[in-house]
Amino acid sequence: MANASGFLTPSVPNLRRRIQLSVGTYSSGVCSFVRISRRVLCSGIIDGTEKHASGVSPSESRTPRIVSQGCKLVGCGSAVPSLEISNDDLAKIVDTNDEWISVRTGIRKRRVLSGRDKLTNLAVEAARKALQMAEVDPDDVDLVLMCTSTPEDLFGSAPQIQKALGCKRNPLAYDITAACSGFVLGLISAACHIRGGGFRNVLVIGADSLSRYVDWTDRGTCIIFGDAAGAVVVQACNSEEDGLFGFDVHSDGDGQRHLNATIKESETDNALGSNGSVVDFPPRRSSYSCIQMNGKEVFRFAVRSVPQSIESALEKAGLPASSIDWLLLHQANRRIIDAVAARLDVPSERIISNLANYGNTSAASIPLALDEAVRSGKVKAGHTIAAAGFGAGLTWGSAIVRWG
């Protein structure tokens, strides 16, 4: 059965159909596909040797052949800065205290990049750990997706990670900018590359250093954010082993006013001066403002939209909520996590959360929490996870996946 993205989920018996040709437009774009039990149509993968009965070669007819391709999560890793900042540490620089922060957010400490640290180094460390667990050599990586809204280069950090990993075949590497939704979108993008493009091993990294864009005198935001990196290896497999059952993705630009870090021009700096002939040229140097957030509105958005998204992803997967072994949400606020879990009737013992120790690490939060849960033995091969990211944009999305 094809879900809203056109992906097949042959592991759900009651949704299998024999053959149904469809073309559809979805929230994630336009997708054409053939629904055939245990088959996926990969346009662009052509067998150039065989002839049709009519005598017309495939290169002339451009008829795509049907191939079987699924994807699964086979490795994970994470890395955090060495500098730890507790709530008591924050109380020394802003009007707050440990109880005020922990009661409202569930956060007790966070990790922050120091002047000697680099986000790309954390991303590389997390990626290496994920590759090691997956037993995948860097030379066998086909694609690196760096999910971050805080790259250390305006043009993106992914190619530098590919270089640092020593990938000798120069695989494609690019950034995905979607803040706290970034990792989920990266996971879905990896599946698209595997199922539609024939990729074998895709490295998905979520890494952010929002501490660089926090106003440390604003207790409404500085108490929330931390820095980290997490990574997973998404690997091609046959359709029977497919581990991405369904997903749901959305955005709403109208909500950008509630959570943003917009660009601003310097009020005084104009190093080149003015030639007197063109108004406002040369332009002033620009930089990004500190994070601006309306906490109440973001909370309302999350507790309303995230459960709906997970329910939609489950419906597309043909699975009941009771099939979820673990609920893994973006680690933004304990009250949001509890509210979403209550809506979905997920008991507290089936929630994965490390918010208390790391705070909101944006795109890194889901893979960071997943890595700790896998390495501790909590998440085991075959477990079904409902994951959801939500935040700036506003963007949100969910994915129903199986680990291993």
UniProtKB/TrEMBL annotation:
Name of the top EC class for this enzyme: transferase
Catalytic activity, reaction form: malonyl-[ACP] + acetyl-CoA + H(+) = 3-oxobutanoyl-[ACP] + CO2 + CoA
Database matches in Gene3D superfamilies: 3.40.47.10
Limits of the Beta-ketoacyl-[acyl-carrier-protein] synthase III N-terminal domain: 174-253
Alphabetical list of SUPFAM superfamilies matching this protein: Thiolase-like
Pfam families xref list: ACP_syn_III, ACP_syn_III_C
Domain of life of the source: Eukaryota
Annotated TM spans: none
GO cellular component, one term: chloroplast
GO biological process, one term: fatty acid biosynthetic process
Pathway named in the protein's UniProt entry: Lipid metabolism; fatty acid biosynthesis
Start and end residues of each Beta-ketoacyl-[acyl-carrier-protein] synthase III C-terminal domain: 314-403
Tagged with keyword Protein transport: no
GO molecular function: 3-oxoacyl-[acyl-carrier-protein] synthase activity; beta-ketoacyl-acyl-carrier-protein synthase III activity
EC number from the UniProt entry: 2.3.1.180
Annotated keywords: Fatty acid biosynthesis, Fatty acid metabolism, Lipid biosynthesis, Lipid metabolism, Transferase
Keyword set includes Lipid biosynthesis: yes
Family the entry assigns: Belongs to the thiolase-like superfamily. FabH family.
Entry-linked PANTHER family: 3-OXOACYL-[ACYL-CARRIER-PROTEIN] SYNTHASE, BETA-KETOACYL-[ACYL-CARRIER-PROTEIN] SYNTHASE III, CHLOROPLASTIC
Function: Catalyzes the condensation reaction of fatty acid synthesis by the addition to an acyl acceptor of two carbons from malonyl-ACP. KAS III catalyzes the first condensation reaction which initiates fatty acid synthesis and may therefore play a role in governing the total rate of fatty acid production. Possesses both acetoacetyl-ACP synthase and acetyl transacylase activities.
Protein name per its UniProtKB record: beta-ketoacyl-[acyl-carrier-protein] synthase III
